[in-house]
Amino acid sequence: MNADINAVQAAVFIVSGALLFIASFGLMRFAKMPKILYARLHIIGVVDCACIIALFAVGRPTVALVALLYFFLTPVAVHSIAKAHYDGGAGNDY
Predict the structure, then answer these.
(1) In the chain, how many domains are there?
(2) For residue range 10-54, what is the model confidence (pLDDT) as tens digits?
């Protein structure tokens, strides 16, 4: 039974690592273009979801609580960054 749990955790870590790898290439491939900040913030959100999935796979209750808190606070933080940048005068230029 313990070996099955370890195999599932390993599979989740591999999938999360693959998502991180793909997202890092997504961050690098964007050139200077309009609204690039918002696209990069979206990719960072994908990376955060992969990290949250990996944290849930650890299987400890305290880590799961941290992951749950992180799951709710990350979108709020990313939205706040984008909104502050937009309201700060950048508008549609960046």
Answers:
(1) 1
(2) 887 888 788 778 877 777 776 666 667 777 777 777 777 777 777
